[in-house]
Amino acid sequence: MNWKINPANEIKGTIAVPPDKSISHRAVMFGAISKGSLKVGNFLTGEDCMSTLSAFKAMGVPIEVNGDILRIKGVGLKGLKAPEGRLYLGNSGTSMRIIAGILAGQEIEVILTGDESLSGRPMKRVIEPLAKMGARIDFLEKEGFAPFIIKGAKAPLKPIAYSMPIASAQVKSSVLAAGLYADGVTSVTEPFISRDHTERILELFGADIRKDKLTVSVNGLKELEPKDIVVPGDISSAAFFLVGALLAEKSDLLLKGVGLNPTRTGILDVLLRMGADVRISDIKKGPEPYGDIRVKNSHLKGTVVAPSEIPLLIDEIPVLMVAAAMASGETVIRGISELKVKETDRIKSMGENLLKAGIEIISSGDDVVIPGGRRRFEPSRFISYGDHRTAMSMAIASLFSSGESIIDSVDCVATSYPGFLEDLTRVVKLAGK
Ligand code: S3P
After folding, report:
1. Could you tell me the CA-to-CA distances from 22 to 79, 80, 213, 374 in Å, in that order?
2. CATH superfamily ID and name for 21-216
């Protein structure tokens, strides 16, 4: 499937962005291994989270799905059953990495597989610390990549103090999940803070979690007590509309119920620094804070994004590149090598698409420089490379082209934002209409 996108001059209205992907995954994962029942409201039924849901159903967890409401009957820490056949996790790196941590401590044998993109993503980053904890894991085809087999643990795992070489919430969460099965305190130290949804949900479920600056630790072998959860909107999905409204000639857009966890709001900080008219209101506190974001057309200027900010906006970098291309002055994004190992190499996918649009981004070492000053992009035929965020970022760029653009292979958008085009069409007024 492809999209044809025409230039726009107005973005106005209200959008309730889809539920947060990271929190939806964790609600199922930790709900499934808790001891009790819980209801999850506003669950993201995109393909990635459905991969997680199907995986736990296949391991014997009763989960009732009613629209975006789930009722999960947790089976307890060690209650998962071996699935029939392999656990297929589609395109979802979060599912594969965190589930590996949970399975490290179970007494069952499971093979994890994924689609072509997921089978090309690095898994050693989780398998190495899990192996140090005593997990028995073997790669089945290519060393370091899925598919791999996790063979049941015979005894509690060994607690470790793990110093992560990269800031990755997936790795941190995988080690903490395994820490639930360790006999003592497992701790993880990251080079920079990454999203802390796992820490928050484990705390909510009564786990013995401690946080101290860049280190988080969990004391294992304690059953989780579930609580009902309502998932807030996904700031990563909101980011496409934020950038669209900032760049449109006339705009006034209200994004309702967006997750505002401070480990996810890096995009707001950077856009504010670039001169964005973005206002937050109606903030609701709770295990995961959320609120409304109102955004209006703004003149953006280039900025420098520091390595410590990267984990706080990792998934928003593709659309930030689009904003930066239209800002005055250049933008430098430092320390973004992790972007190369996402659903696709996003430095390459965005670099090639933006080049077609008339912008040459310069990648050197771990940094990327985006020359600003573009008034209109050149219309072209863009390619998603099977990556949802590349597809949606180029859809936003296409609104500011001088003619109709096409985005090829957009089916991948269903992984995180199935209704993206419908939402976009609803708030955009095309130029000349
Ligand atoms: C995620 C963490 C991030 C992010 C991904 C979701 C999570 O990956 O890119 O889309 O839910 O933990 P890393 O933590 O590996 O950078």
Report:
1. 23, 22, 22, 33
2. Enolpyruvate transferase domain (3.65.10.10)
Q: Which atom of ligand 1 is nearest to the CA of 22?
A: 11
The mean pLDDT of the chain is: 97
- pLDDT range class, residue 433, cuts 50, 70, 90: low
Annotated domain spans of the chain: 2-19+232-430, 21-216
Residue 154: CB atoms within 10 Å: 8
Q: Ligand 1: which of 20, 21, 22 to mutate, most ligand atoms within 8 Å of CB?
A: 22
pLDDT per residue as tens digits for the range 175-199 = 999 999 999 999 999 999 999 999 9
Mean pLDDT of 140-153: 96
Q: What is the mean pLDDT of residues 4-22?
A: 96
- pLDDT exceeds cutoff 90 at 383: yes
CATH code for the part of the protein at 2-19+232-430: 3.65.10.10
- Give the position, in ligand 1's atom list, of the atom nearest the Cα of 25: 11
Which of 152, 173, 183 is CA-nearest to residue 93? 173
| Closest C-alpha among 190, 186, 183 to residue 202 | 186
- The strand ranges marked E within 6-78 are 8-16, 37-41, 63-66, 69-73
Query: How confident is the model at residue 430, as a pLDDT?
Result: 76
Q: Which residues are catalytic?
A: 315
What is the number of the ligand 1 atom nearest to the C-alpha of 338? 16
Neighbours of 432 (CB within 10 A): 8
* pTM metric for this prediction: 0.98
**Which residues lie with the beta carbon below 6 Å from any ligand 1 atom?**
22, 25, 94, 168-170, 173, 194-195, 314-315, 338
The residue to mutate among 30, 126, 168, having the most atoms of ligand 1 within 8 angstroms of its beta carbon, is 168
Q: How far is the CA of 249 from the centre of ligand 1 (A)?
A: 33
Distance 348 CA to ligand 1 centre (A): 19
- What tens digit of pLDDT does each residue of 385-402 get? 999 999 999 999 999 999
